[in-house]
Request: fold
Amino acid sequence: MTALPTCREVLEFLGDYDAGELDPMRTAAFERHLEVCASCRNYLVSYRVTIELEKDAFADPGLSEPPEELIAAILSIRRTA
Reply:
């Protein structure tokens, strides 16, 4: 049985988890952690809402795509939080 990840590990790999890019064992461990950790569940919800808001913000055909550097900076900050 895989040990539960820490909250820090959940935050570090949240993007990969949400994208379905973790291996099945790690995914199962993350889901067990989320079952017992309200803080991480809430963070996951806010992460998903933020992603949707970002998509909506750039859905206007008159707006250009966000620069890759901006996306990388946002993701970098999330990983260190």
Remarks:
- The radius of gyration is 14 Å.
- Helices lie at 7-12, 14-18, 24-36, 38-57, 68-80.
